[in-house]
Amino acid sequence: MTPLLNLALLTLRSPAKAAEIVLAQQWRGEAVWTGLLLVAVLNALTHALMLWLFPVAQELAFLNMSPTALVGLSAGLLVVFSVAVTFCGRLIGGQGGFAQVLPVMVWLQLVRVGIQAVVIVVTLLSAGIGALLSLLVNVFLIYVLLHFVNEAHRFNSMWRAFGVLVMASLLALFTLTFVLGLLGPAKLGLPAYV
C-alpha cells in the first residue's frame, strides 16, 4: 500500500494519530495550495459525475454549474472554512494557525473525495443503500474533523473542538450568504423574489 492510502486508512481508524502525522509534515505553502487546487478539481469532478449520473430536479438547476465555477466554489469554501476554523479556534484559546489548519482541511477533503467515489459506486448498485451510506459517512467525517481540529489547535478537549466547528460553520455560512447576496439571485439562476 502507498503511504497516502495508509494515512487515509489511519485517518478513518485513528483520526487523532493521523492528524498528528499530517501536522508534523510542516508542509510548504506551495504544496498546500497545490493540494487545495487538486482537491477542488477532484470535488468538481465528483460533483459533475453525481449530477451526470443522478440529474437534479428543475428547482435545483442552480446546482448545474460549470466545472470552473465548481472548482472556484470548492476552493473558496475550503479557504473560507479554514480561515473560520483558525479564527474561531484562536478566539477560544487554540494555538493552531492558518498554516496548521489549511493542510488538515485539504487532507480531510482528499479523504472525503476518495470515500465519495465509493459512495457513488454503491449508489449505482442501490440508491437507498448509497443514500444511507452517504449520510453515515458524512456523520463519521464530522467526528474525524473534530479530532483534526482538536489536534490542530492543541485543545485536548473535543468539546472545544465542537464549539469551534459550530462557530466556524456559522461564520462561513454568514460569509457565504453575504457573498451570494452581493452576487444577486439572478446570477445564481434563482427567481428575483426569493
Automatic annotation (TrEMBL):
<protein>
    <submittedName>
        <fullName>YIP1 family protein</fullName>
    </submittedName>
</protein>
<feature type="transmembrane region" description="Helical">
    <location>
        <begin position="158"/>
        <end position="183"/>
    </location>
</feature>
<feature type="transmembrane region" description="Helical">
    <location>
        <begin position="69"/>
        <end position="93"/>
    </location>
</feature>
<feature type="domain" description="Yip1">
    <location>
        <begin position="11"/>
        <end position="178"/>
    </location>
</feature>
<keyword id="KW-1133">Transmembrane helix</keyword>
<feature type="transmembrane region" description="Helical">
    <location>
        <begin position="34"/>
        <end position="57"/>
    </location>
</feature>
<dbReference type="InterPro" id="IPR006977">
    <property type="entry name" value="Yip1_dom"/>
</dbReference>
<keyword id="KW-0472">Membrane</keyword>
<dbReference type="Pfam" id="PF04893">
    <property type="entry name" value="Yip1"/>
</dbReference>
<keyword id="KW-0812">Transmembrane</keyword>
<feature type="transmembrane region" description="Helical">
    <location>
        <begin position="113"/>
        <end position="146"/>
    </location>
</feature>
<dbReference type="GO" id="GO:0016020">
    <property type="term" value="C:membrane"/>
</dbReference>
